[in-house]
From TrEMBL:
<keyword id="KW-0812">Transmembrane</keyword>
<feature type="transmembrane region" description="Helical">
    <location>
        <begin position="16"/>
        <end position="37"/>
    </location>
</feature>
<protein>
    <submittedName>
        <fullName>Uncharacterized protein</fullName>
    </submittedName>
</protein>
<keyword id="KW-1133">Transmembrane helix</keyword>
<keyword id="KW-0472">Membrane</keyword>
<feature type="transmembrane region" description="Helical">
    <location>
        <begin position="128"/>
        <end position="144"/>
    </location>
</feature>
<feature type="transmembrane region" description="Helical">
    <location>
        <begin position="57"/>
        <end position="76"/>
    </location>
</feature>
<feature type="transmembrane region" description="Helical">
    <location>
        <begin position="97"/>
        <end position="122"/>
    </location>
</feature>
Amino acid sequence: MTDQDDKQDLSSLKMILWLVYLSLFFSLFIYALVILVIPPPEEFVPPEIARGNPPKILIILGFASLALVPILQNLRKRMFFEPLGEECYPGSTEARSAYFTMSLTTWIMCELIGVFGFVVHFLTYEPFMAMPFVVLAAVLMGWYRPQTDVAEE
């Protein structure tokens, strides 16, 4: 493979990474918009949140979201950065492929936290209970944005 082909592959990878990233990132804004705009149906009976009895699913999804934060960090380290340091990738193509896979996995897990918020909204119709999930997902997506300089190395 020539140097020109390598540069073209890299620019193609960068474009695809940013396209996928922005698509997933802006879907979080759609979740937030739906959470803020959709009112509860007339026959909806709210859970007893005001009395201090949140639904168990809310507690489970909250803990799952908080647990995903260190899992993401550890997953990224084990999936890409440790093998990169040990020079386990025979060439730049394999390293870029691993970076692409690691990025997609990370963003999908961040998106999952936003989906948790979406589910919480339709269970409780309380925007203030659902929005923290979407905000956490957006913060993590911002933190794990594509690092094209890492893909170049």
